[in-house]
Amino acid sequence: QVQVVESGGGLVQTGGSLRLSCIVSGLVFKYINVGWFRQAPGEEREGVSCVTWIGSSTYYLDSVKGRFTISRDNAKNTLWLQMNSLKPQDTAMYYCAASVSCDGNSGGYLKARADTYWGQGTQVTVSE
Description:
Layout: E1 3-7, E2 10-13, E3 18-25, E4 34-39, E5 46-51, E6 58-60, E7 68-73, E8 78-83, E9 92-98, E10 101-103, E11 109-111, E12 117-118, E13 122-127
Parallel strand pairs: 2-13
Antiparallel strand pairs: 1-3, 3-8, 4-5, 4-9, 5-6, 7-8, 9-12, 9-13, 10-11
C-alpha cells in the first residue's frame, strides 16, 4: 500500500520560511520522480517543483525560483521543500506527489501522471 504523508505547513508572515516534508512508503522511492503541487482556493492546481529519481535534475515554477529549494534523501524515502521569502501569493494547499513527470531542462515541466500518488496536503498560509 502506497502512502504519501506531508508535514510542515503553517501560518507565517511575509518574508518568513517554512520547510515541507514528505515521506513516501510502498514505492521504491529511489527510482521515482517526486514533486510538489499547490492549489489555492478558486485556482487550478499548479506544479511547484520536482526532482528526478537520480536527483540530477530539478524544476521550479518561475514564481518560486530563487526562493524555494527542493531536495530528497533516498535512504529516508523523504522529500523536502524549503520555502524562503514567502509571499501572500504562496498561500495554498501544498501536495506531495510521487511518480510524476519531471524535467528540469530549459522549458522544463512538472506533470501529474495516471499513476501519480498524492498526499493529503498541508496548508501554507502567508499573512501580509
